[in-house]
Amino acid sequence: MYHNIIIGINLKVDNWGARLWYRHSVLSNDQAWLVAETLVYVMTQLTMDKRQSSSMEQLHKWNLEEPKVMERWIHDFIVEQCQRRPNASAVCSWDGNMTYGELDRLSSNIASHLLDLGVGPNSFVGVYFEKL
């Protein structure tokens, strides 16, 4: 395992599941259990039925038309934008901008590299971002 802690979350329309992988040299079993309990608490709060809330009536007023549930992955939406609007801004940040076309090229390069390494469907790939 390349990373110290990996959390995998599988979201479905009516439920969710999670897995926690960790290096025993970094976390004790008790610490990993606390991380897992915290994850369960946060996910439960995020997915709980908010209709029990006393403010539901106000929420309905603000949102008269509820958006329909889309049974698509987020990357499908991004691929669609890459094809439809390759010159539009996809990422705008303090250290640079990237168009959908650039995002498509870079992500395709990464995908190709991962395939060359033998990574396939249902493989877990850790992602590391440097904190600045």
Automatic annotation (TrEMBL):
Keywords associated with the record: Phosphopantetheine, Phosphoprotein
InterPro entries: AMP-dep_synth/lig_dom, ANL_N_sf
Any Gene Ontology CC annotation: cytoplasm
Matching SUPFAM superfamilies: Acetyl-CoA synthetase-like
An annotated Gene Ontology molecular function: phosphopantetheine binding
GO biological process, alphabetically ordered: amino acid activation for nonribosomal peptide biosynthetic process; secondary metabolite biosynthetic process
Keyword Manganese in annotation: no
Ranges annotated as spanning the membrane: none
Residue ranges occupied by any AMP-dependent synthetase/ligase domain in the UniProt entry: 80-130
Highest taxon of source: Eukaryota
Keyword match Transmembrane helix: no
Protein's name in the database: AMP-dependent synthetase/ligase domain-containing protein
Organism (species): Clonostachys byssicola
